[in-house]
Design goal:
Elements lengths: L3 E4 L2 E3 L62 E2 L34 H4 L2 E2 L13 E8 L14 E11 L2 E4 L7 E7 L7 E9 L4 E5 L23 E6 L8 E15 L4 E8 L11 E3 L5 E10 L6 E6 H14 L10 E5 L3 H6 L8 E6 L14 E5 L2 E2 L5 E4 L3 E4 L1 H5 L6 E8 L2 E8 L19 E3 L2 E5 L2 H7 L1 H4 L1 H9 L10 E6 L14 E6 L2 E2 L3 H9 L5 E6 L4 E5 H14 L35 H5 L3 E3 L1
Parallel strand pairs: 1-3
Antiparallel strand pairs: 1-15, 2-6, 4-12, 5-6, 5-8, 6-7, 7-10, 8-9, 9-10, 11-12, 11-14, 12-13, 13-16, 14-15, 15-16, 17-18, 17-32, 18-19, 19-20, 19-23, 21-22, 23-24, 25-26, 26-27, 27-28, 28-29, 28-30, 30-31
Length: 621
Amino acid sequence: MAITVANCCFSALSSAFKSQPRLATSASHSYLDARSLKASNNENRAPKKRSSASPLKSNAQQKLPGRLKDDKSSLYGDGVGGKGETGRLQATGFKSFGTQRKEKKEFQLDSREQQQQVEPGNFQDATFLNAVVKVYCTHTAPDYSLPWQKQRQYTSTGSAFMIGDGKLLTNAHCVEHDTQIKVKRRGDDTKYVAKVLARGVDCDIALLSVESQEFWKGAEPLRLGHLPRLQDAVTVVGYPLGGDTISVTKGVVSRIEVTSYAHGSSDLLGIQIDAAINPGNSGGPAFNEQGECIGVAFQVYRSEEAENIGYVIPTTVVSHFLNDYERNGKYTGFPCLGVLLQKLENPALRACLQVQSNEGVLVRRVEPTSDAHNVLKQGDVIVSFDDVHVGSEGTVPFRSNERIAFRYLISQKFAGDVAELGIIRAGKFIKVPVELNPRVHLVPYHIDGDQPSYLIIAGLVFTPLSEPLIEEECEESIGLKLLAKARYSLARFKGEQIVILSQVLANEVNIGYEDMGNQQVLKFNGTRIKNIHHLAHLVASCQDKYMVFEFEDNYLAVLEREVAMAASARILKDYGIPSERSDDLLEPYVDSLGDNQAVEHDFGDSPVSNLEMGFDSLLWA
């Protein structure tokens, strides 16, 4: 079954592709011209510099060489393909590697969805429609393969709405890697500059501000309503594909449950509706019959077996985002418990664990970076969370006679909050406090800041492994070993990274190493590398005659230190690179572990097996 997820801002590409022969094997991508009424099924990202320049053609998809034929990619509803970090949609859920990956969800426009779209009709004169605005964004994404530079800019349009106090809400993917944001009110022909105040990647929400007083004249912010009930009528409003004026689609609430958020690769409460959500609807509000906003349109699900499945971010998630911002002056993110759980449906399993009743979930694994690592043990059974009983299927009571995934309770907490867990350990019931914090990813789905970290030593380019880099380089060139670590490994300490040699800029000083690329570097002069900043510190403080880099499978690269340092400036000039390292590596290095701590184990080498990841009876909290 081809699974697709579409999130929804409409995009037009204003520039041609830039040539970059070395990376011609990168994943191919296609983009949607503003004049086209079709959305491609490729990933939402900035134009890649991976083939000879070619102007974008309207009403047609443009492919670049190197994409695997069986690759299932994602498309943001903003018309440019989308994937998590670089303006692109990240595949939801846990990823496998090679051909074993779960199918990615795609953003895709379907003619059957367009048939549901209706004229505003009775809503034409509704005042709450005037609070919905059109968003025009110019994006400039980082180039993860050439981390010292940016990709060509591209533009997109989406929707947003007023919430009062000079602020607007929209989707995070609508304003990702923004260099300019403009908004326009309904019935107005003037665009006003907007700024991003906060961006929640995991919940796909962004908070904007507009300073112009002219923009806010006569504006009435929307009222946030409560979580709807099943079969409640819902109206989605925005500026989707197919025209320039506001559009209204109608439907009903089909389902409310914990849902995979494609952009943030997270699982939060979501509202499933059957109203059409098309490219351009992203960031637009969904209303109940009382004219209250009950959520934010953000993605759709497409498959051969299903149609008209759209998703709305509920006001409970929106309120959590806004409260987080108000509490901390910035967005800190949704917390997690950091444990791998197994359902306890089997009576013999419960009896073996001395669980007397039909409740609880088994702790299979605890993430080393979570606070739960100091409290919970493998084999513990969690039977309650803040005195709410957890069922043997990993669910908890929800509203009157519904049940919902246990991780919903965790998502109601804020970073730094303490939860009380009731657990059964060796047949005895005890209560333990656990602090909840956002999850630490060994291989991040998104990169904080404007540019990826990088370090160039005599033409050897080092950078941390990230999901955007994997998507950009394409999985074939990354290799199964690195993919396995990216998909299954857990960080053993905060700040840990998988540092790789991404490429070698050929020069006589690095003869023999030119063909190296996408290999993990483990040690420098015998010292195990903790992260890219640690490697930069080791190189800067090195006084040895030789610099010895140890890679996977005992592969060595040795450079004479003085010769290498002398050649570095010339190599940077030859390749037009402004600096040998990213700005963040200019800061003094602080060792969080301490140099005297033994770190002889293989960092990141803690694989989670396919068995643990693939069974429905297992879930991450």
